[in-house]
Amino acid sequence: MGESDSKSNVSSSVSAKAVDFTPSNDVWYIDGSVVLVTEKTAFRVHGTIMAAHCEIFKDMFAMPQPAISDPDTETYDGCQVLRLQDSPANMKHFLKAIYDFSYFQPGTKTKFPIIAAVVHLSTKYEAAGLRQRAIDLLATAYPSTPAAWENRSAQRLVPPFEGEHAAYIALATENDIRVILPTVYYSASRQPLAEVMAELRKVSLAPNWEIFADFVVGREQLFRAELKHILAFLDVGFTRPQCQNTSVCTNVLGNARNHILQKITDAEPFHQWCNANSCEVGRTLGLCNICCTTIENSIKEGRKKVWEQLPRMFGLGDWETLRARDGLNGNGM
Q1: Is residue 319 in some structural domain?
Q2: Half-sphere exposure (CA, 13 Å, Cβ side) for 301?
Q3: CB of 73 within 8 A of CB of 25?
Q4: Alpha-carbon distance 14 to 29, whole Å?
Q5: Domain BTB: where (predicted)?
Q6: What is the pLDDT of residues 285-320, one digit of tens each?
Q7: Is 225 helix (H, G, I), strand (E, B) or coil?
């Protein structure tokens, strides 16, 4: 960055007893006007740049600043020192996102720890642009539209990792990002309950967020909704216009209906398998071509109904409100 060679050019007037930190190897600008210290790591940056990106720093630097000559003012090489209660790793990612556009680009694969750092500090210091960029990236992993969910594997820009449900829930609750939560809960609902609960116990609960209750109640409502809407083709009154072999197809569906309780307890419950494989259900059961198409369409319609109800199941309102509050209206996620 052209700054590392400057670290040896510190003014001899600096008091040795005041220096209890080490200049960052990543973010240190010789012409910077302020030194941000997190734990034992210091970052030399420009007050004007920080103010341009962050409302908190803008307000801070707009106030009358103490004179550098004031003995009560901590300085380093003629720069005011600000001591912040953030981790050095988070601050490094945040500052690099501010200074280097290529480090935190929209639409580019980015690892979760970098995004999490930007979320935490853009929320804390009110850097709206960076916060929105981070939310947009998170939404590729846990999107709010059914089309984006179906293409999630190909479109997600945040690589998956073990234990990510708890990590996403913690990040979202701590920073009031709600739009990703319905699909995080939805994905977690596919795991055995004991595994999910063990994972959720790792989450530090933010005030007023009843994560355990929201998840357990929502999981039960999701189960009931999928039985009702995804398996609507097993209802006795389900109509199959133009069925090519009424007696055979009726018997097949009757047998499937009789065995549904067994299949619900499978490693992949029958309703979840149907949801994920709508085009294969009729053929797997041995139905005629017309009934295969009818059932596929019924499952797809049921999937839409379940999806629209998803946020409300977990106590999160509706999709439209969630997208609007978190800036996702119109971006397809």
Answers
A1: no
A2: 10
A3: no
A4: 17
A5: 32-100
A6: 999 999 999 999 999 999 999 999 999 999 999 999
A7: helix
The first and second tokens of residue 248, run together, are: 């055979």
Tell me the two tokens of residue 294. Answer: 């009818």
Structural domain count, the chain: 3
Tokens of 246: 């009424």
Is position 115 within any domain?
yes
Contact 238, 294 (CB under 8 A): no
What pTM does this model have? 0.88
What the block records as the tokens of 279 is 């085009």
282 and 304, same domain (yes or no): yes
Residue with token string 């109640």: 217
* Shared domain check, 189 and 253: no
Question: Does the pLDDT at position 241 exceed 50?
Answer: yes
What length is written for the chain?
Answer: 333
Query: What values do phi and psi take at 82, rounded to 5?
Result: -115, 125
User: Which residue range(s) make up the domain with 69?
Assistant: 4-85
- Among the candidates 145, 177, 209, a domain finishes at 209
**Structural element, H or E, at residue 136:** helix 128-141
- Helix, strand or coil, per DSSP, at residue 79: strand
